[in-house]
UniProtKB/TrEMBL annotation:
It comes from Tothia fuscella. It is a multi-pass membrane protein. It is found in: Membrane. Its main location: membrane. This is UNC-50. Keywords: Membrane, Transmembrane, Transmembrane helix. GO terms for cellular component: Golgi membrane. The chain crosses the membrane at residues 84-103, 115-137, 175-194, 206-227, 239-258. Residues 1-28 are annotated as: Disordered. Residues 12-24 have a biased composition (Low complexity). Belongs to the unc-50 family.
């Protein structure tokens, strides 16, 4: 039997599918690549994730410079690689064990601290902030009348074909988890090592302890700003730096007697007691 190739009919009312797979009803419903790669560890770029973590402390602006190359090759600002999430979750697991050994006398409290650090502090907070940013930043700081906030439609994990540039929820999540890394370094590592000092009832301890929180939340705000400022279609992103003024005011007010480490230490959120080791 001779192979036969049928040409598309010229009188067909629908679009031609010659040389391509015919469209199906569910073609527009696709699982995001981020979820497809959740358990494909050989495909994850952990080396890139380590470089990003180092750069977030030394030169955070470099982290978001590479998104232009990713946008040109993948047509999405979101990077569907969960390696950063897994790596930071592993670091939180280690620090949760350290906090537990110091301040949690029972196994149940250790498990509670571990789950709280990873699923509430890190993933829960990142999902909350990224959701708020998706609806507020994308709609209020998008393209519009010069000098005024704009509004535009938004995507989730990719740029729909034929649409203009839009903020993706996946990119908001990328920014949020990267902004959490300096918070982990300052409040989960440095604060833990300094708790015997910053938890004391001295004004110098109060000053250094509260300054740690100012640095951590200030870093978080700056990295959020850098992440959204890297998108060329967003305007007035400098408004995202406004929380830094509020942080400075709260930090100055706290120096009159409110010790943040004694009331806001991460281990307290999990129901553990700092005990006499922190005072």
């Amino acid at each position: 039997m001779n192979p036969h190739i049928s040409l598309p009919r010229h009188n067909s009312s629908g679009p031609s599918t010659f040389g391509s797979t015919p469209p199906t009803r569910n073609e527009g419903i696709r699982m995001p690549r981020f979820f497809k790669r959740l358990f494909k560890f050989p495909q994850m770029d952990f080396e890139m994730a380590i470089w990003e973590m180092t750069s977030l402390i030394i030169a955070p602006k470099k982290v978001f410079r590479s998104i232009y190359y990713h946008k040109q090759t993948k047509n999405t600002w979101h990077r569907p690689d969960p390696s950063f999430t897994y790596l930071l979750s592993f670091f939180l697991l280690l620090t949760s064990l350290a906090w537990s050994l110091a301040y949690a006398p029972t196994l149940s409290q250790t498990l509670r601290i571990t789950l709280t650090f990873i699923f509430i502090h890190f993933l829960g907070t990142s999902l909350l902030i990224s959701t708020l940013s998706y609806f507020l930043v994308g709609r209020l700081l998008g393209p519009g009348v010069p000098g005024l906030p704009g509004r535009r439609r938004q995507g989730l994990f990719s740029q729909p074909p034929g649409e203009g540039e839009m903020l993706e929820f996946g990119y908001c999540f990328d920014v949020s988890i990267r902004a959490f890394f300096p918070v982990w370094v300052v409040l989960y590592v440095v604060q833990f090592l300094g708790m015997p000092f910053v938890g004391k009832e001295y004004w110098v301890s109060l000053f250094f302890g509260n300054t740690l929180y100012l640095i951590a939340f200030g870093y978080y705000t700056i990295i959020n700003f850098l992440g959204y400022n890297a998108l060329p279609f967003l305007q007035h992103t400098e408004l995202l730096l406004a929380p830094t003024a509020v942080l400075i005011i709260l930090w100055f007010a706290s120096l009159f007697g409110f010790s943040m480490p004694r009331h806001l230490a991460p281990v307290l959120w999990a129901g553990a007691n700092l005990g006499s080791k922190a005072v």
